[in-house]
Structure formats: C-alpha cells, structure tokens
Amino acid sequence: MLQENFTFHFFEVFGTVEVTSSSLANKGTCSVAEMMFELSKRLAEFAELRGWDKYHSPRNLLLALVGEVGELSEISQWKGEVAKGLPNWSCDDKEQLEEDLSDVLLYLMHVADVYGLDLGQADLTKIIENA
Ligand SMILES: Nc1ccn([C@H]2C[C@H](O)[C@@H](COP(=O)(O)OP(=O)(O)OP(=O)(O)O)O2)c(=O)n1
C-alpha cells in the first residue's frame, strides 16, 4: 500500500509536472544551472508533499547518497571491464543502471540543497579550476 502511494506521488511530482508549460521539457534549451535548479525544486516538492523533509537532514541525505553509490557499484561487481556504451549488457541491467545513477544524482543535488549550496555554480567553478 505504501509502495503504491509512493509510486503515485512519485509520478505526480516527477512525471506529471514534467509536461506543464513552465517545465524545462517545453523549453528549447536550458542552461546546466537552470536544469539543476529545476531538479532541486522538484526534489524539495517531492519531499514536502510527503512530509519527508523532516527526515531529509544533511546527514541522512549523505548516508542515503552513499547507500545509492553502493547500489550503483553493485551492478558492475564481478562483471569485469565493460566496453563503452555497454553493448553486452541486458536491457534490465541498463535500466537498473539508469535508475541507480539517477538516485545518486538526485541525492547529491538534494544534499547540496539542504547544505544551502549552489551545486550548479560550484560545478562550473570547479571545471574552470580543473582546467
Ligand atoms: N526518504 C526518501 C526515500 C527515497 N527518496 C527518493 C530519492 C531517490 O531518488 C529514491 C530512492 O528510493 P529508494 O530508497 O526506494 O531506493 P531504490 O529506488 O534504489 O529502491 P531499492 O533500494 O528498493 O532498489 O527515492 C527520497 O527522496 N527520500
């Protein structure tokens, strides 16, 4: 039952909102900063809708992020090196990979948000620093 509600609300926030006129989906182009802002906003809405923001402390989100990194690593565990584009992977494994990569990105963005940091700007600054 809980899982059904979760799925419904998940698509309410991440799916339905996606096709409203103000969404990024209907803009021709958007900057990285705009995209990251939009994702952060949706994550905050997603948590608020369920009253989960009280659990989304920096420490909890950081631990959730680490957990998802573990899940992401698990897919490649014992598989050996793989070619770019994953030509020999099954559709199921690729789908799982997409989900786990998304979970990592979303928790990363959410943790930056609750720290009060602008991750989009920090990323751009870091890329310049790296160069
Ligand atoms: N308290 C929570 C729990 C989940 N999520 C969101 C962020 C992630 O994108 C996704 C993670 O959900 P799960 O913890 O259910 O992890 P998985 O989707 O990986 O499921 P499972 O661990 O069963 O494979 O849901 C969240 O924002 N806050």
Automatic annotation (TrEMBL):
Cross-referenced Pfam families: MazG
The UniProt record lists the keyword NAD: no
Cofactor entry: Mg(2+)
Signal sequence segment: none
Reactions this protein catalyses: dCTP + H2O = dCMP + diphosphate + H(+)
One cellular component (GO) term of this entry: cytosol
Domain NTP pyrophosphohydrolase MazG-like: 57-122
Chief localization: cytoplasm
UniProt feature coiled coil, ranges: none
Molecular function, one GO term: dCTP diphosphatase activity
Compartments it resides in: Cytoplasm, Cytosol
Oligomer and partners: Homotetramer.
Protein name, entry field: dCTP pyrophosphatase 1
Annotated source species: Clitoria ternatea
